[in-house]
Design goal:
Helices cover 0% and strands 53% of the residues. Strands 2, 4, 5, 6, 9, 10 and 11 form a 7-stranded mixed β-sheet that branches. The radius of gyration is 13 Å and the shape is globular. The N and C termini lie far apart (40 Å).
Length: 121
């Protein structure tokens, strides 16, 4: 299994930036897909971005495309989500997740603890 530990998040004004980190440990995960999801109060969880460990193929939700960037650092076993031009609608709890089959659009198997991102207007 894989353990995912998140860091980052916090309060930022609209138009600002934040960078989230997700450190992975445990079983080898070179074939995994890594994703970021978010959930606002009273809303369903939604997909934000994903990347494959092996080839660094990326995919973004339309709502964040051009503003958010997902990346990975193999040496640190860490996935990042750089969030720029933040909007109040980006306010949510953000979760890092891993999918064992390497399918960015598949069902994710492991989840981080979540971190709050709040964007003030």
């Amino acid at each position: 299994q894989v353990q995912l530990v998140q860091s980052g998040g916090g309060l930022v004004q609209a138009g600002g930036s934040l960078k989230l980190s997700c450190a992975a440990s445990g079983r080898a995960f070179s074939t995994y897909a890594m994703g970021w999801f978010r959930q606002a109060p009273g809303k369903e969880r939604e997909f934000v971005a994903a990347i494959t460990w092996r080839y660094a193929n990326t995919y973004y939700a339309d709502s964040v495309k051009g503003r958010f960037t997902i990346s990975r650092d193999n040496a640190k076993n860490t996935v990042y989500l750089q969030m720029n031009s933040l909007k109040p609608e980006d306010t949510a709890v953000y979760y890092c997740a891993a999918e064992r089959g390497g399918d960015i659009k598949g069902n994710y198997d492991y989840w981080g603890q979540g971190t709050q991102v709040t964007v003030s207007s």
